[in-house]
Design goal:
Radius of gyration: 14 Å
Largest sheet: 2 strands, antiparallel
Oligomer: single chain
Shape: globular
Order of helices and strands: HEEHHH
Number of helices: 4
Structural class: mainly alpha
Number of strands: 2
């Protein structure tokens, strides 16, 4: 039997996916929240295990892109 929480988790994740530079991306803070860890720890783990991720797994946002995502 499927877990009834699964569709909610998928929906929560889907709402946190943005289109930036023509690619679907998720902010590190959103991914960390879904994983239940602080953003700092997520970024440390990715840096520590960089060889396990594709080269384009992470990229910095421009100030304008970050501003646009903040909804201000």
């Amino acid at each position: 039997m499927l877990d009834s929480a699964l569709p909610v988790a998928v929906e929560l994740a889907a709402r946190r996916i943005y289109l930036i530079r023509g690619r679907r991306v998720m902010l590190d803070s959103d991914l960390a929240a879904l994983c239940g860890v602080p953003t700092k720890r997520l970024n440390e783990a990715v840096k520590r295990h960089a060889n396990r991720f594709p080269c384009d797994f992470m990229f910095p946002l421009t100030v304008d892109a970050a501003w646009a995502l903040s909804g201000v």
